[in-house]
Every structure is written in C-alpha cells, then in structure tokens.
Specification:
heterodimer; A: mainly beta; six-stranded mixed β-sheet; four-stranded antiparallel β-sheet; 12 strands; B: mainly beta; 11 strands; globular
Chain lengths: 114, 116
C-alpha cells in the first residue's frame, strides 16, 4: 500500500525567509502527488499537483514543488514566506485507478515569526 | 470557496447516538469522497461514491455508512457513536471516477463532530 511521510511535524520560519517542507512517498509506480493547505478552522485548499512531465510544478500563493523520482520526494518550497502562510500543510498521493482515494501524510504545521 | 458544501458545520451529540452529515459536490462532479481528520489518526479516506454507486472503501467502520443520491449529494451516517468518533469529517468531490490530470479533489469546509 502507498504511504506518505512528512518528517517535520512543526516548522517555524521568519517572515521573508525561504521555506521547504519535505514529503516522501512509498509507491511502486509514479503516483499523482498533491500539496494541500489547511488554515485554522478551514477546509483543505489545493496548492499544486504533479501528474507527469516537468518535475518542477508551480502552484498558487507563490508555492512550487519538485518531484524527484530517485528520492521518492515531492518537497514544497516558497522563496519568501508571508505571515499569512501560517497553516498546516499536507502532502498527498493519489492513484490512477478505480477508487481515486488520496493518502495523506501526517501534516506539517508552519509557524511564521514576525 | 471550493464549491463543495457541507452541513452542518458543527454537531455535538452524545455517545450511542446517530448523526447524518450532508455534502453537496461541485456542480458537474460525479465522484464524492469522505475523509475523517482526527488528532490520533490524521486524515483518512473513508469511502468514495461515483454517480450513485460505491466505488472504493477505506478505513470506514461498520457503524458508518454513506450513500449518494440521484442529485449527486451524499450523506454520511454515523451510528452508535463513541467518544473516539469525534473528528472533522471532510467531503471532497471530483469530476470523474478515477484519477487523471484533470480529476483533482476539491474539499468542503468540513463538519466538526463532537461526541460527549
């Protein structure tokens, strides 16, 4: 079965600093990969997704992620963090088969220092 | 706003009771998914319906059931509730049955269930 690991439970960065959130997946083939963000009291919002092609994908709010097959990783990055980016971030794996469920990582809570 | 609506936003009930959570998918989406988010289990897939039929099951308890109606809205029924069922329940929808570049899941705001 596929699995997703987000090694960092909490990360604190200063406003304006760069950010990288790690995500590793376990699956026999190339899965579909997603990053979602959950602000306090809110639902999940899709930041970006990777299906195939260019391994560097751009998302909303200035986020990007890079798929590295050799490392089974899909890390999320942002060059300059804003205070409004404080939220919980979830990496997810989807499968291209009947039953398109997502398997989520445990999430990384991002705190932004002024 | 994802276009997926869920009611109610909050639900407080007692152990042993039964509740129904409702989800309306985005216009045109045929697949509906239910997820549970709890502190100890994280975000877990429960069940998927496509155009009225159950298509995939995840870690859904036998006390829980769901259905999707002809107008494509879905209901998640939770019965014989236990304290551990307290969680945030999300509904998501996507256009098609199986994955693909255009078949992204869009999540509703969730229903927070508290079992006392």
């Amino acid at each position: 079965a596929q699995s997703v690991t987000q090694p960092d439970i909490h990360i604190t960065v200063s406003e304006g600093a760069s950010l990288e959130l790690r995500c590793n997946y376990s699956y026999g083939a190339t899965p579909y990969l997603f990053w979602y963000v959950q602000s306090p009291g809110q639902g999940l919002q899709l930041l970006l997704k990777y299906f195939s092609g260019d391994t560097l994908v751009q998302g909303i709010k200035g986020f990007e992620a890079e798929f590295k097959r050799s490392q089974s990783s899909f890390n999320l990055r942002k060059p300059s963090v804003h205070w409004s980016d404080a939220a919980e971030y979830f990496c997810a794996v989807g499968l291209n088969n009947a039953g398109n469920m997502l398997t989520f990582g445990g999430g990384t809570r991002l705190m932004v220092k002024p | 706003d994802s276009g997926v609506t869920q009611t109610p936003k909050h639900l407080i009930t007692a152990t042993g009771q039964r509740v129904t959570l409702r989800c309306s998918p985005r216009s045109g989406d045929l697949s509906v998914y239910w997820y549970q988010q709890s502190l100890d289990q994280g975000l877990q897939f429960l069940i998927q319906y496509y155009n009225g039929e159950e298509r995939a099951k995840g870690n859904i308890l036998e006390r829980f059931s769901a259905q999707q109606f002809p107008d494509l809205h879905s209901e998640l029924n939770l019965s014989s509730l236990e304290l551990g069922d307290s969680a945030l329940y999300f509904c998501a929808s996507s256009p098609r049955l199986a994955g693909g570049p255009t078949d992204t899941q869009y999540f509703g705001p969730g229903t927070r269930l508290t079992v006392l």
